[in-house]
């Protein structure tokens, strides 16, 4: 029997792009989310703001042939802007609608965080759709669809254990906290696989610490030119701002939404005035302004 030729990564990618072109396209993301995703805080169907709908439509666009328009989405807003729910909604859509059976992974800087944030935000929706979900906090953080064979899991921060995945979506919580070689290797191991047409990394985070949050800092500087204090002073050549009224930028197959404005109804002046009393100015600037800061500051 003749020996089969070895396939290169490009061969695998070409096969993935050419297969199942006759498949019906998935339900568009925003209508599906509005009809199915349960807000994990309110316990009711999510009510997306107009700006969230617009960015989600762009971020989850599927091109001709089923290819995801973006392989990386960075959604960065100030604290309490609903970033985790948005990430969970995007992952739930992929898990239920895209290239079945699919694999979605939720990650963070430690296992408790990954199982407790994005993964937990998805569970009410998955359960309502007939998925088998963990029955106790000590159970394996994995949800499974007996209908499609898709599964959603929260993974540890072990880059070796994350190798070899075939995830259509990986969801990263608070990338500013990914510090050190071990977590950088995890990021590298979880690159979107070439065997899927829709393959995407989704990052929800706010700004980090200069000289510490290097992984996020490197992504940030692909779009923005900064001064020594980390302030934006321009946009790099090749980065395109999509809309005049929203800070959404595109470079190649990366989409970045980096916002400094409180847009949710509960983000009131009274809330921020109270926060200024209880946290340091640098912490307030980072958490409630989404600006990069240094880590050393005394509380006065």
Keywords:
alpha/beta
Oligomer type: single chain
H/E series, N to C? HHHEHEHHEEHEHEHEEEEEHH
Number of strands: 11
Rg value: 20 Å
Strand order of the largest sheet: 3-4-2-5-6-1-11-10-9
C-alpha end-to-end distance: 78 Å
Would you tell me the structural class of the helices and strands? alpha/beta
Question: Which runs of at least 5 residues are low in confidence (pLDDT < 50)?
Answer: 1-5, 7-22
Helix content: 25-40%
Mean pLDDT: 87
Tally of individual helices: 11
Indicate the overall shape. globular
**What percentage of the residues does DSSP assign to strands (E)?**
15-25%
Largest sheet report: 9 strands, mixed
Could you give the topology of this structure?
Elements lengths: L8 H10 L10 H8 L13 H10 L12 E5 L6 H15 L5 E5 L3 H6 L1 H11 L13 E3 L6 E4 L4 H4 L6 E5 L7 H9 L10 E6 L8 H10 E3 L5 E4 L4 E2 L6 E4 L2 E5 L10 H10 L2 H9 L11
Parallel strand pairs: 1-6, 1-11, 2-4, 2-5, 5-6
Antiparallel strand pairs: 3-4, 7-8, 9-10, 10-11
Helix pairs in contact: 4-6
What do these coordinates show?
The chain is an alpha/beta fold. Helices cover 34% and strands 15% of the residues. The strands form two sheets. Strands 3-4-2-5-6-1-11-10-9 form a nine-stranded mixed beta sheet, with helices on both faces. It has a two-stranded antiparallel ribbon with strand order 7-8. Helix 4 packs across helix 6.
């Amino acid at each position: 029997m003749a020996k089969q030729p070895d396939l290169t990564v490009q061969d695998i990618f070409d096969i993935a792009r050419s297969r199942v072109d006759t498949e019906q396209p998935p339900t568009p993301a925003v209508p599906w989310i509005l009809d199915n995703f349960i807000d994990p805080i309110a316990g009711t169907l999510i009510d997306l703001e107009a700006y969230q709908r617009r960015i989600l439509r762009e971020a989850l666009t599927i091109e001709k042939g089923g290819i995801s328009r973006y392989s990386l989405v960075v959604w960065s807003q100030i604290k309490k802007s609903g970033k985790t729910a948005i990430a969970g909604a995007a992952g739930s859509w992929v898990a239920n609608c895209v290239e079945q059976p699919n694999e979605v992974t939720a990650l963070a800087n430690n296992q408790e965080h990954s199982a407790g944030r994005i993964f937990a935000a998805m569970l009410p929706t998955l359960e309502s759709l007939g998925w088998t979900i963990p029955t106790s906090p000590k159970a394996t953080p994995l949800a499974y669809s007996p209908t499609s064979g898709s599964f959603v899991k929260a993974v540890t921060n072990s880059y070796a254990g994350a190798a070899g995945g075939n995830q259509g979506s990986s969801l990263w919580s608070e990338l500013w906290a990914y510090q050190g070689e071990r977590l950088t290797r995890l990021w590298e191991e979880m690159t979107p696989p070439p065997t899927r047409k829709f393959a995407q990394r989704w990052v929800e985070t706010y700004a980090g610490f200069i000289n510490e949050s290097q992984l996020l800092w490197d992504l940030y500087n692909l779009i923005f030119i900064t001064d020594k204090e980390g302030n934006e002073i321009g946009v790099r050549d090749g980065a395109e701002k999509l809309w005049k009224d929203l800070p959404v930028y595109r470079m190649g197959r990366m989409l970045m939404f980096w916002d400094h404005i409180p847009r949710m109804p509960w983000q009131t002046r009274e809330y921020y005035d109270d926060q200024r009393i209880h946290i340091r100015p640098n912490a307030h600037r980072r958490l409630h302004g989404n600006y990069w800061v240094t880590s050393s500051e005394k509380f006065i």
